[in-house]
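Course assignment 3, question 2. Fill in each field.
Student: A.L.
Task: Predict the tertiary structure for the chain below.
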Amino acid sequence: MKRKFWLIGGLAILVVILGTVVLIKPGSSEPAPQIGRLAPEFSLEDVNGQTIALKSVLGKNKVTIVNFWATWCPPCRAEIPEFIEFVRKYRSEKVTLLAINIQEDPKTVKAFAENAGINFPILLDQSGKVAQDYRIYAIPTTFVIDGSGIIRDKIEGSLNLARLESIYREANK
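Answer field:
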């Protein structure tokens, strides 16, 4: 009986170790983005085929909000009207919202953006590399980055307008 217990326990530990090794992707040796550290640089095409680099946006803004999302994600869809209102309300301030769609067909994303009346850039991470660099394990996930490129906040889950405004005010100090 004890031998069986040790055999099963040993196999369970082996499975956990192997599962961890298999789940670690190449390039994961880089530290995960953390509050207080530089945000990983990226350059992606938007739904109109225009390339947008994070560094070009950071130089123009005090605050950049980067949101990872997908059209099939109900919490992501729920926060889009909040983002639209935020962008409308704070358009004259030095803040930009970039929504990074993860691994979806560009035509699907563009049609969704047009139907939803989205008024901010939708970037396409078709390979999933940027999401991997940012260690996105759940969506929506939002990063708040200051003008120097330092991550000031990371929020996993859907945001409403009041929370978004609070995060922005805190990062804009």
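Instructor remarks: Residues 5 and 74 are 43 Å apart (CA to CA). The first strand starts at residue 43 and ends at 46.
Grade: pending
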